[in-house]
Every structure is written in structure tokens, then in C-alpha cells.
Specification:
The complex is a heterodimer of chains A (207) and B (611).
Chain A lengths: L5 E6 L3 H13 L4 E4 L2 H7 L5 E7 L7 H10 L6 E5 L4 H9 L4 E4 L4 H32 L4 H11 L4 H8 L3 H14 L5 H16 L1
Parallel strand pairs in A: 1-2, 1-3, 3-4, 4-5
Helix pairs in contact in A: 6-8, 6-9, 7-8
Chain B lengths: L1 E2 L4 E2 L2 E2 L4 E2 L5 H8 L2 E3 L3 H4 L13 E8 L5 E9 L6 H41 L3 E5 L5 E4 L1 H7 L3 H4 L12 H4 L3 H8 L9 E6 L5 E13 L2 E10 L1 H23 L3 E6 L4 E4 L1 H5 L23 H15 L4 E8 L5 E12 L5 E10 L1 H28 L1 H27 L6 H26 L7 E3 L1 H18 L3 E5 L7 E3 L1 H17 L10 E8 L5 E6 L7 H6 L15 H11 L4 E5 L5 E7 L9
Parallel strand pairs in B: 19-21
Antiparallel strand pairs in B: 1-4, 2-3, 5-6, 6-7, 8-9, 8-12, 10-11, 11-12, 13-14, 13-17, 15-16, 16-17, 18-20, 21-22, 22-24, 23-24
The chains are: A alpha/beta (207), B alpha+beta (611).
Chain lengths: 207, 611
Amino acid sequence: MNNDGQTVFIVDDDEGVRDGLSLLLATVGLSCELYESAHDFLDAYDGARRGCLVLDIRMPRMTGLDLQKKLQEMGCTVPVIFITGHGDIPMAVEAMRHGALDFIRKPFREHDLLERINEALNIDEDAHRKALDRQQIAEKLSTLTEREKEVFDRVADGYMNKVIAAELGISERTVEVHRGQVMKKLDVRTLAQLVRVKIELEQSAAA
Amino acid sequence: MSRTLASWEDGEPGPVREYALSGTPCEAVMRHGVQIVDCELGRRYTLDRSSIGYGCESFVGSPIVNREGEKIGQVCVFGAQPLVDPEMASALVSLAAVRVSAELEHRQQQAALAKSEAYSKAIVATAAEGIVTLDARGRIESVNRAAEQMFGYEARELIGRNINVLMPEPYRDEHKGYVERYVATGEGTICGAGREVPAQRKDGTEFPIHLAASEVVLDGERCFAGIMRDISEQKKAEESRKAVEQRFRAVFEQRHQLSGILSVEGRVLEANRKSREFGGVEGESVTGRFYWELPWWSHSAEMQRRMQDAIRSAADGESTRFEATRPRADRQLATLDFSVRPIMGGDGKPVFLVTESHDITEQRLAEEEARQHRARVAHVARLSTLGEMAAGIAHEINQPLTAISLFAQAGRRLAESGSYERMGEICHKLNEHALRASEVVERMQTMARQGESVKETVDCNELIDTAVKLAESEARIYDFQIDFHKGRELAPVSVDAVQIQQVALNLLRNAMEAMVDSAAEARSVTIRTGMRDDGQVEIAVSDKGCGVSEPDADRLFTPFSTTKSSGMGMGLSISQAIVRAHGGSIGYRSNDGGGTTFWFTLPAAKREEHE
């Protein structure tokens, strides 16, 4: 299990549940931090930290649902697993609608719990890697000239060199030179790779 | 010193002489009796320092002896010449001494008689009783002042008339010749310790007298004395006392309550009909027996003991009242509201004791039925409440179960990897959370219990604490804060704990429901305990909710009326029934800062209840 630099943040008002969770997670080598209330967690929250959130849905003053909404408002994308008791299904459904990874009912089956937590940590890891990739692409993209960017957009959208040349009012040969320059700067060898970069850019812009 | 009473010297009466007796021949007379000295008197009595026999030659003295044999004086003669015939002289002097003694005695008797007569006259004259004396023929000889006043006659009008003039008809006629016949034949009775007879005044009115007569025989003549007292006032008082007693007796005897009068020692002086016949037909007499030994209480040694104790305290001036049992005619035990109290005499000490019992069997049965009914309704309401609280309770149990499950799984993993250091800690946690879960179950079970309603003496804070914990299981899932302010020095209360917890729980849940729409910060309920000025314990639950609206106020305590979307509407009505059955009251007031306070009170336990 690879969770270097990742922390399981546990927010539950019940001390017994908190202690039990932290002990169980420690036995599988996961590091965790315990919070008694949503407020305590928010006070200590640092957006740069990686991991996942295990959140009790019912808590005094600020419920798990409230905390989830608050974190979304703050642009935090850390995966959230809700823990629920009997009769909390409507709240759990509401939580899922707001993008929770899953909810697990108390008392937990160890397998379900650990599997969900691992899944959450992987998602966080993926997101982290993707974020890094996006950053690299953005850096490479910034080295393109205006003309090269225009050519990149059109090549990625599948236009023929001839069409691009006509549209931009330059020679077909010039288009080819720019295209070569773009592939070199973006560190891609095939047209397919170039298209993928373009898609990723669009996705991150949408996000 | 001696003194002469009479003396004769030189042929004529001599003066009174006083002289010292010591050493004189007179002293010898007083000591040894008759003394005769025929000559040379001076040489015989050399120690005589008196001048009584100075220069005399002879002496004869004889003591005067009274009836009791005491020497009360002497007759003596001093002679200037020697005695010629000493024996003749001695006989003459002794004769004189005897004669003087007889004369003195006669004088004393005369004086005593005169004194006695004077006394008698004075007594008769001033006596409060009328005194009449009769001769042997029954004629009146004397009448004293009291008799004159009693009969309205003057003495002279009565003296010489027959005694029957003082009697009314028909006795007057019958009495004619009665005294004469008695004297002649001994028939009939006149004398005696006294009896009540009718009498008649001069004006013809009759009145009762008490007459004591005695017979005197004087110089062979019989006569009679009668002492009489007007007893009409006494008779009147007696009659009115009899009437009062009759009235009292009628009331006492016909009372519907079981009443008795006992001596201070506890013996039955009177027991009225109701109390005698309570157990069926009247059996053996109860009068004179110790109250606690009557067959009425023989079914229970405990009852006998309590009766005896109660009567003892009553004799010490303390009233006692308790519920007693006594078999009825149908052999069923009746419940009696029994009391015994002392009746104080003028000196502040009990003179007798009064017992009173009121048959409250039916009343008790009705109360018991009502109590059971209330207990059943309360139980149903509790079950319904528990149903409504199911989510909260499930959550409350699920928390420790989750912790247990987590610790168990962690423990297994550690064991599998051969790491045992934390096992002790883990097992401790497992146990701790298992107990926590069982506490919740126990609280719930207590609430669900349909036991006999048992009153126990408890501290209100402990009682309410349990109710608060139950309410907190709901408070947690609906995000309410419950603050419990425990009052200090609360009097203990004697209550059915579960029912009182039910009332507190009900008020707490109502308070929370009143605030479901409130903001998170305002969602707090306060419960307080404290003593009121009247000595009752008050439990008050305050919310910051919407308050009680005017139209709802009237129906607040009405069964099956509710403003809530869930529930039966039984809560406040059953709470009111429970509180009232405990002798307390329940109500509500609006808070100054908004919201409502519902309160109820419980009377402090009586002293014997918390022993």
C-alpha cells in the first residue's frame, strides 16, 4: 500500500469510535489524525495536505454534511467517506449526491472500511498525479508562440495542413514547420499524443 | 415553786403563800405519800430553807390523787405543839385530801359539760343542715334556723306539731302515728345513714330532702333528731347530667364511625355499636379489656403491637393516626383510618383516650384501581415514547458496538502479526464499551418495565440524571444541548422512580420538539432542580422554543390532543396524572427571553418514609 504523505482525517464526536478507528488504521500502517468536531477539523485544515476524510454524518453543532458542503465551497477535493448509523440513509444519499465517495454503516466490516479508505487514498493519489501532469503540460504550453498555439489548436482538432494554411493565410510548408516545433516543445511524437494533451487541457479548464 | 390554794392560820383564812418545795416535808408528801412528824420538825428537815413551817414542832400531810392516780397537790397541817394522837391527825388530813380530790373532779366535769352544751347549741344554730328534734310521740320539740328557712316556717309555728306537717300528701297521712307506733312496737325504721324523702314547705311546694335520723334515750324517754338537707338543686343538676349523658350516648352509640373510649391504661370504657358489631354479631363483651388485646386485632401481631404503641403515645399526650386492618363480618380485612387521641383534664394530663376508625376499604380499593389504571396508561405511554425514541436509542447502542467491533478487528490484526503489547489496553476498551452499551439497554429496559408501582425514597438529582441521559440519546442525534443544573440540599422524595423519570423525560422531549426549527446555537434545553419555599422539590425544564399559543394552552393537559406531527398526545396528560398522584403539581410559565418553562413539584418525603 502506497500512502506516503497521505493522512486519514477522522472526524467523529464519539471518542470510542475515534480511538477504535485510529487503532485499526494504525495496524495496517495508515497514519491518521482525529478530530472531535467539524469545527476542530476546519480550524486545523490545510488544503495542501493529502489523504482522505472519514466523516461521521451526525455530529452536534455542525454535521458531516455541513462540513462536506463547507469544504466544497473552499475548493477542497479531498475524497470523503461518510460513516452512518441506522436510519441515516436519507442523509447518506444526500451526501452521495454531493460527491461523497461512499458511506459505510456502523459497525464496520474491516474489509469494507479498509477497501474504501484505500480507494479514497488512490483517488487522492491519482488526482494529485493528474494535477502534477496538468502543471507540466501547462508549463510546456506556455513556451509556444502565438502562431504555434494557433497551429496546435487546429492540428489537435483534426484539421488538414492545407486547411490550416488557408485559414491562417500562411503556406502549407510553414504550417509543417510550426507543427514540428509544437511536437518538439510539447514532447510528443505522434498525432494521437498531441490530441490527448489537448483533451486534458480542456478537461482541466472545465474543472 | 409551790403555791397554796387555800390556807388556815391562827383561826382564820391565811394568805396565798409561795415557797420552794425543796427540802420541805411537803416535798416528801409529793414523793412518798402521807407523812407524819409528831415532834421536833425543825431537826428532821434541816435542809428546809423555806419559811413555811418555821418554828413548828409537828407536821401531817396527805397527797391529793386524781382519778388517773396522779398526785396533783396535797393537804397538810403544821402544828406548833407535838402531836398527841398522830393517827387521828393523819386520818383527818387524808379524809380532807380525798374530799378535795372529789370536789376538783366534779368541778372539771361541770366545766366540760357546759362547754359541750355551748358547742352543740352553736353547731345546731349555725348548721347548714336543718335540724329538728321530736319527742317520743313524734311531736316537734326544736327547730334550728336552717330548718326554718328550708320549710318557710318560724320555730314557734312548728314546735309541738306532729312531724308530718313537713311532709306532702300522701305521706303526710300515712305517717300519722308512725313514730308512736314505732316506739310502742318497734315496727318500721326511723334511724339510718340517710335516705331521700319528699318534703313540703309552708307554702305547699314540694321538694326533695336528704334525711338522716337518730334516736336518743334520755332519762328513759325516747326522742329523735333529724338532720335534713335540701337536695332539689342537686337533683336538678343530676337530672340535667343524666339528660346530657343520654344525648351523648345516643350520638356515640349511633355513630357511623367506629368509636371507643379508653382509660389512660388502655382499657375499654365504652365501645359504640358500630365498633362492637363491625366483625359480625356482637360477641363477648369488650368493656374492661385492654384495647390491643381485643379479638378485633388478633389476626395480626403487628397490628396489636401498633395499637399498643399508639395507645401508649396517646397516654403520653400524643395523638396517633394510621391505617389499620380489621376483619369484617365477611371475614375480609377492612382498611380503617384509625386514630387515637388523648382527652386532657384540667391539669393538662390525659384523663381518657378516644379511638375512632373510619372504614376506608372501598375508598382504598377505588384508589388502588385508579393507581393500577394510571400505571397501565403510564406504561403504554412509556412504550410509545420508547418507540418514538428508537432511532436515538439505536444510535446510542450502535456507538459502543462500533467501537467494540473496531477494537476487536484491530486486536485480531495485532495478534496475527505477533504483536501483543497493546492487548491489555484493547481488552479494557472492549469491556468499557460493552458496559456502556449495556447501560443504555438497562435504561431502556427500566423505562419499558411494567412492574408494580413501588415507591422508594430517592434523591431527585439522581432520579433526573437518568431521565437526562435517556433524553440525551435523542438530543445527540438531533443536535440538542441539555444542561442539567442540580439544586443543592434537595429534600428526599418518596416516589415511583420510573414514573417521575417518565415525566421528566416527557418534558425534556417536548422542550426539544419545541425547538426543532431553531438555529443550531439556540438548540439548548435547561433542566433545573431546586427547593421551593413551601418545602416541595421543583423540577423545571426550560426551552427557547416558540412558546405556548393561547388556543393550545387550554388543551395542554388534555389527553389525545397534540400540536405535534407525531405522538399520541398523551404526554402531558399522563405526566399530570403521575405528578398529582404523587401529591405534587405541574404547570408552565413563559420565559422572559422567549420560550417556555414547564415545571412540576414533588412533596418532600415524610420522615418515617426515609428511615
